[in-house]
Amino acid sequence: MTRAEVARVIGRSIATVRRMEGKELNPDVDWQGVHHFDEKEVEAVAVDLRENGRRSPEFASDLPDFLLVSRLQQVESENEELKVAAKDLQLADEFAAFFLGIANEAIMELEERGLSSAYSLRSRFEMMAALIPG
């Protein structure tokens, strides 16, 4: 199989096939300099790409350091965004708990005064409070 045929089979560009040479793909080179790939090896790579959607984990060891650093920075940035979102969610939960406490105190005061509407308000409050996590 030629580079172009391999590229069609694995669904990647010829440039990607070239980058995979010597790693996932090991072609034989004829006297004219044409690279010929083993069909079984190409099929194994194609299956791996279809199942995993990316190149083999061993490939990462061959990546240039700047690409690894770039990916690490991207992951760290995503991690920081998740931390901020988690903190926002925690603050929202604390805010909701604070207002639930105020509402509960107000209902308790109405109940102590013996207002009949306080009991229906209490049941609605409990139904709403049950919907809020935590």
Please explain how this structure is put together:
- The chain is mostly helical.
- The chain has 2 domains: 3-62, no CATH class; 79-131, no CATH class.
- The chain is 69% helix and 3% strand.
- The chain has helices spanning 3-10, 14-20, 39-52, 65-112, 117-131, and strands at 28-29, 35-36.
- The chain has a two-stranded antiparallel ribbon.
- Strand 1 and strand 2 form a beta hairpin.
- Helix 1 crosses helix 2 and helix 4 runs antiparallel to helix 5.
- It is rod-shaped and about 100 Å long.
Biggest sheet overview = 2 strands, antiparallel
**Helix percent band:** 55-70%
Structural class: mainly alpha
The proportion of residues in beta strands is under 5%
Number of helices: 5
Low-confidence stretches: none
Number of strands: 2
Tell me the distance between the termini.
60 Å
- Assembly classification: single chain
Structural descriptors:
single chain, 134 residues, mainly alpha, 2 domains, two-stranded antiparallel ribbon, 2 strands, 69% helix, rod-shaped
Quick overview of this protein structure:
Helices cover 69% and strands 3% of the residues.
What is the strand and helix layout of this fold?
Elements: H1 3-10, H2 14-20, E1 28-29, E2 35-36, H3 39-52, H4 65-112, H5 117-131
Antiparallel strand pairs: 1-2
